[in-house]
From TrEMBL, chain A:
The keyword Phosphoprotein does not apply. GO terms for molecular function: ATP binding. Belongs to the ABC transporter superfamily. This is Sugar ABC transporter ATP-binding protein. Residues 46-265 form the ABC transporter domain. It comes from the Bacteria. Gene3D superfamilies: P-loop containing nucleotide triphosphate hydrolases (3.40.50.300).
Automatic annotation (TrEMBL), chain B:
This is O-antigen/lipopolysaccharide transport integral membrane protein ABC transporter RfbD. The keyword DNA-binding does not apply. Signal peptide: none annotated. Residues 1-29 are annotated as: Disordered. The lineage of its organism: Bacteria, Pseudomonadati, Pseudomonadota, Alphaproteobacteria, Acetobacterales.
């Protein structure tokens, strides 16, 4: 049985910039050690850590707890910087934290970035081969995959040109075609998959829905509320790294829309 | 939501399902680093592939490919050989084979391995942030890439050997375990310098500058014997034994057990430091790059 279980999970990460990137300046700053604290209203909470004035710690997730069991289709909503994508990355195992517990049963596949793991210098075909290698596919499977993706992405002659020459729509097509290949038990999806022109959208939808249907658990972030209404059985509303509301789709989305109407973002 | 799945499901069904999550935030940092390593071993083909692709991309569009490097190092060896054999009052026939070998071992071996280990994780930023792959895979990629460049360049000293009719004989085979040790140390270098350079961006140039100094104080363009009685001081330079265990066999000599022992000891210590550094840095690396 696939499930995701989070308990009191918090995640903070350093934002390094300017002098904190430099070993010399960090050592000097340690000698001075200025302590300051500051909390921001937009996005995650920020605090400036003690050692160096320029290491900013962002508290991206704060005491997040929930359990998702098999069959649930969960949507994440919240304004920019609320921690949706961070949460998705934690579930995908890209971000790690020591605070709280995370228990995931079942293999995950994350659609986070359409060009995830793609190399702009390689052609579309070569990127597919690289992807197949990442998935541990054999030769026959790789050839099938190549044909499948070539047909689906419909890139024509561009298929054998380096990906960096693609228009953004074209690279989304390729990325989409590849990303929708695996059949994971837990599917994690960021909102990028809504890109592409209308004709492609229709095609993409069919393919995506096939993938979503096969997954036992879906977690998706989106600003497109109509899609969430259609797809999700449950909505988690994030605000400043915390869960503001968690419940059935209609209930949460109505509250969310009401809140948006009062304070437009 | 029950739309029929799109055409050609064959390929997708054949895509093997990845097994359950291996590294949920349970267990100590050391256990998770170990899981990272196990995952890297499972995906070693991908690491090798990435290394190859790096080389192919670097020389895409050039007819000679990686052999451009070979040509530049041949030119370098020829010009330095003529100059330094005069400066050191040495026979070209004895000096040039030595120089061609040392210079190659240094520049495409030790030096480039360390220099490239600094950007090991930084250069993979996009992948690290969007795909869940073990981090040590990128270390493997750097080692593979360097091994390929090394194989292309070792041709230069071999050609010089052929011209001057020096042949190392079977002793040359002793260089193979030593090269393996280099590869292992290169992997460790990726763990240390890759992590450090991700956090502090000024370390890579510092490493570059130090390597320049090490180049002059290590017997690369000069021979250890030229130091005379002071040769034992060289043992304080960790690069000296590492260089010797590869160079001596290729010059037809058997390196002493003492040299091998020191080289092994240095490697073990370096590995311990590397493992510690990687365990501490691993979970944070994704935020640093």
């Amino acid at each position: 049985m696939a499930h995701i279980c989070l308990e009191d999970l918090s995640l903070s990460f350093p934002v390094l910039h300017g002098g904190s990137r430099s070993l010399k300046k960090t050592l000097l700053a340690r000698a001075k050690s200025t302590v300051a604290a500051k909390t921001g209203a937009v996005g995650g909470r920020m605090r400036i850590s003690g050692n160096s004035a320029e290491v900013v710690e962002v508290q991206a997730l704060f005491n997040v707890s929930f359990t998702i069991s098999e069959g649930e289709r969960v949507g994440l909503v919240g304004h920019n910087g609320a921690g949706k994508s961070t949460l998705l990355r934690v579930l995908a195992g890209i971000y790690e934290t020591n605070e709280g517990t995370l228990d995931i049963e079942g293999d995950t596949h994350a659609l986070i970035d359409p060009n995830a793991g793609m190399n702009g210098e390689l052609t579309g075909r070569e990127n597919i081969q690289l992807f197949a290698c990442r998935m541990g596919m054999g030769r026959v499977a790789t050839q099938e995959l190549e044909k499948d993706v070539e047909a689906f992405s419909d890139l024509g002659a561009f298929f054998d040109l380096p990906v960096r020459l693609y228009s953004s729509g074209m690279s989304v097509r390729l990325g989409f075609a590849l990303a929708t290949v695996p059949r994971p038990r837990i599917l994690l999806m960021d909102e990028w998959f809504m890109a592409g022109d209308q004709k492609f959208q229709d095609k993409a939808r069919a393919r995506l829905e096939g993938m979503v249907d096969a997954a036992e658990i879906l977690v998706v972030t989106s600003h497109a509320l109509s899609i969430l209404r259609q797809w999700c059985t449950r909505i988690i509303w994030m605000e400043s790294g915390e869960i503001r509301m968690d419940g059935p789709t209609e209930e949460v989305l109505d509250a969310y829309e009401a809140a948006l109407a009062i304070t437009p973002v | 939501m029950s739309v029929p799945s799109p055409a050609s499901d064959v390929a997708r069904d054949e895509a093997p399902r990845r097994q359950s999550r291996r590294d949920t935030p349970r267990g100590s940092p050391a256990a998770r680093a170990w899981a990272d390593w196990k995952e890297t071993r499972r995906l070693w083909r991908l690491g090798v592939r990435l290394g190859w692709l790096d080389i192919r991309l670097r020389y895409r569009g050039s007819a000679l490919g990686p052999f451009w490097l070979t040509i530049t190092s041949a030119l370098m060896v020829a010009s330095m050989g003529v100059l330094y054999s005069r400066l050191f009052h040495m026979q070209l026939a004895t000096y040039l084979p030595f120089l061609s070998l040392s210079l190659t071992l240094w520049s495409v071996g030790l030096s480039s391995l360390i220099q490239e280990s600094c950007t090991c994780f930084l250069e993979a930023e996009a992948m690290v942030r969007s795909v869940q792959l073990p981090l040590l895979l990128y270390a493997l990629r750097v080692v593979v890439r360097n091994a390929i460049v090394f194989a292309h360049n070792i041709v230069v000293p071999l050609a010089v050997f052929a011209i001057y009719h020096v042949w190392p004989g079977v002793n040359a085979l002793l260089a193979l375990p030593a090269l393996l040790l280099w590869a292992l140390d290169g992997f460790a270098a990726c763990m240390v310098f890759g992590s450090l350079c991700a956090r502090f961006r000024d370390i890579a140039p510092i490493v570059g500058a130090l390597l320049q100094i090490v180049f002059y104080v290590t017997p690369v363009i000069w021979m250890p014997q030229q130091l005379g009685a002071k040769v034992s001081y060289l043992l304080y330079n960790p690069f000296y034994p590492l260089l010797e265990i590869v160079r001596e066999p290729l010059l037809g000599r058997v390196p002493s057990l003492q040299i091998w022992g020191i080289a092994l000891a240095i490697s073990v210590v370096f590995w311990l430091i590397a493992v510690r550094a990687f365990i501490r840095a691993r979970a944070r690396l994704v935020f640093w790059i």
